[in-house]
Amino acid sequence: MPDRLSALDASFLYVEDHATPMHVGSVAIFERPRTGFDYGQLLDLIGARLAFLPRYRQRVLTVPGHLARPVWVDDTDFDLNYHVRRSALPQPGTDEQLFDLVARLISRRLAPERPLWEAYFVEGLAGDRVALVTKTHQSVVDGIGTIDLGQLILDARPAPPEPFEDTWTPRREPSRAQLVLDAVSETVQRPTELVENVRSAADDAVASLGKVAETLGGVASTLRTVVSPAPSGPLNVRVSGGRLFSVVRTRLEDFRKVRAEHGGTVNDVVLAAITGALREWLLSRGSALTPTTTVRALVPMAVRDAETAEFSTPALVGNQVAAFLIDLPVGEPNAVLRLQHIGHAIAEHLESGRSVAARGLLKVGGFAPATLHSLGARAAGSLSGRIFTVMVTNSPGPQVPMYAGEARLVEMFPVMPLMRTQALAIGVTSYHGGVYFGLNGDRKAAFDIGLLGGMIEEALEELKGAHW
């Protein structure tokens, strides 16, 4: 039987265009050890572990006539050097130069005729640091058969990469006749799929995606609130092909202090800081805010399998991410009340009995946030962009150092994709005492995204100093 793309995975390919590439990215910054960490060592590290990620050596093959969804086939011309690329900044490279490079890289679509991922080894950062920028298509990481590359190459202990010898042998690509025969055989069993496949391929992607989201059942995501159009605002615009990327660095201890003072969870405080920042950003844009003004956020949250009593890797990273809609109270001037409103909104999810505590997520092997952010993007991609304004993913990471080979991971910033009518996406990851925000914005609509980053820091300071 052919390894056919699921309806959801195929939909990500159908709706993609030059303005909305459907991949999830990350920016990992490492300290170069005394023993060195170069491009060749990274190639050895990634190459040695691709055996655990067979999807990373496969490409998408379209069925003639679009009689069925595309299939995954081994890339007979797979070239690791094509996917793992070398780049450099003019020394001493600044963080601003790195993030400008990230914005350009993340705006480019992945080549559809090759396996749908890329990694860039960026040298020249000041302080003898290097960066690894990754891009992985949303159709690749499903959390069941495939996790994110960033999760697999990071370990809790440093160890030099062993020289890699590629012994992989690709399977022969099916012929056009075989693809058609398989498609016809499946169509006889499920004739309605033929109509859906042809509609999707004929650029009726929006209607197709809506159909996919309705029929997925429990496969990809669960909507946790009543669906209604999102309030309009400066972030609800048709995005361009350009991107800007900005980051915010904060300390986990500050969020814990606010939680201890006012209750709730660290995630509540993160969302409250973002809400406060969005409030100030909207005011700086001249938006008229009333006490009831809100910005609707799609907040994907990990859930555990209802049949699994214990936290475990299969239960947590098993394509179970709930798409939870929260109306962020940007019209509320009081920081503590904003936090409490958010806490009440999330309470429904917590009371469902299926929420995953941070301690459970941290039991997942490797650097789990890399995979969980990808699953969050899948959950967002399965829904209509008209029902939310901004996507916010927050995944807790390990509070101990992680290593790629012998290079210690210093910081990790998620790069979440933009939907067609969302000009801002925010990814948040906690790691080794820090909380790191990655802000991906449309270059036209969110040209002042750097200001928003500073406002997140100010909103956190406001929460720290807030009293009843």
UniProtKB/TrEMBL annotation:
Pathway: Glycerolipid metabolism; triacylglycerol biosynthesis; Lipid metabolism
NCBIfam families recorded: acyl_WS_DGAT
The entry's keywords: Acyltransferase, Glycerol metabolism, Lipid biosynthesis, Lipid metabolism, Transferase
Record-listed E.C. numbers: 2.3.1.20
Residues annotated as domain O-acyltransferase WSD1 C-terminal: 318-464
Pfam families cross-referenced by the UniProt entry: WS_DGAT_C, WS_DGAT_cat
Family: Belongs to the long-chain O-acyltransferase family.
Record-annotated O-acyltransferase WSD1-like N-terminal domain positions: 5-270
Record's catalysed reaction(s): an acyl-CoA + a 1,2-diacyl-sn-glycerol = a triacyl-sn-glycerol + CoA
The keyword NAD is assigned to this record: no
Record's GO cellular component terms: plasma membrane
Top EC class, one word: transferase
GO MF terms, alphabetically ordered: diacylglycerol O-acyltransferase activity
Protein name as annotated: Diacylglycerol O-acyltransferase
InterPro entries: Acyl_transf_WS/DGAT, O-acyltransferase_WSD1-like, O-acyltransferase_WSD1_C, O-acyltransferase_WSD1_N
One GO process term, biological-process aspect: biological process involved in interaction with host
Top-level division of the source organism's lineage: Bacteria
